[in-house]
Amino acid sequence: MDSCGYGKTKVAWLLGAVLLFFACAPVTRTDLSEKELLGKRIFFDESLSEPAGQSCGTCHEPTKGFADKYGRITSEGAVKGLFSNRNSMTCAYVAYVPALHYNKEDETYVGGLFWDGRVNSLEEQAGQPFVNPLEMGNKDRKMVVEKFRNATYYPDFVRIYGEIVSCDSLYGKILDALATYQRSIEVNPYTSKYDAYLEGRYELTGQEKEGLALFKEKGLCAECHVLDNDERAGRVLFTDHTYDNLGIPSNPDNPFFQVPAPYNTVGRDTMDLGLGAFLHDSTEFGKFRVPTLRNIALTAPYGHNGYFKTLEEIVHFYNVRDVEEYPAPEYAETVNRDELGNLGLTPEEEAAIVAFMHTLTDGYQID
């Protein structure tokens, strides 16, 4: 008997291994391994929430760059009317985010998953939404496992992992399968125009080329969304995995403000302190992890609280935050005053940077 309360169960082999190859996502590759395909089945299984109707893929939809399926400010959970407090980050390319650590040379924290770096592996990340009352809503791991044992693809799980009696161990293997899918080529394909450009298969337009130059230099975007190959990925990820406070205002339209106690006890006065809240360190209050810009054109709205509806809006904010009227930052004391806020970009230059960022969308095919 383990902590989930399960004893040994008899597996009924009802379906053949062929079930593993029927994927639920709108885009299916034919070169995924059996374990990756199993992870994909779990990722898009809406029966694993409480009540049923929500999957990992609801908040991480492939056609939306693996961000929220409906492009919402924050995602609604399985229980109607309950919303998370933050915008859903893409889960594409996060397989390369390192564990949270402090870089003494640069005097900054690096890595960790979620906006606030609170877990250090894809497996840890995958385990949280299942039992979060504002997300998939299960009471505990036991509830998830009970549903999983009834899934049509469960025999495929047993064929790959063996029959597992312990609920804790089985839950761990569920997370292993999910993480395996998130590390797959389907979630990390590197098929953008920019990748084709680096490989000599695409020529940037004049506007895109200007945008790249501005991205590197005058716009200072590459200070954090770096253009060097990531040491873990071996490819450009457009992030250094560090943390920053951009001075984004509180979002008055955030539906989390309407979520009742005990999930939100202060209503509209909620202040998200990001990394600092996790570390209990006021010098890191208001800082959030720099996300990848891959597929950024698909993942609106933008910012940890979804304040900006379009790429044009957030690029303009980077450019003129300190010279135009914006509401006060959600947390003012740690705002980055050096790399954004008064960049002097013209409207045409802003548009060129946006055009360049559109080249980072996966799925480009040469005519």
UniProtKB/TrEMBL annotation:
Coiled-coil stretches noted in the UniProt entry, renumbered to this chain: none
Record's keyword terms, sorted: Heme, Iron, Metal-binding, Oxidoreductase, Signal
Protein name: C-type cytochrome
Organism whose genome encodes this protein: Parabacteroides hominis
Primary localization class, coarse: other
Signal peptide: none
InterPro entries per record: Cyt_c-like_dom (IPR009056), Cyt_c-like_dom_sf (IPR036909), Cytochrome_c_Peroxidase/MauG (IPR051395), Di-haem_cyt_c_peroxidsae (IPR004852)
Domain Cytochrome c: 206-361
Entry's localization field: Cell envelope
Top-rank lineage group of the source organism: Bacteria
PANTHER family in UniProt: BLL6722 PROTEIN, CYTOCHROME C PEROXIDASE-RELATED
Alphabetized PROSITE patterns for the sequence: CYTC
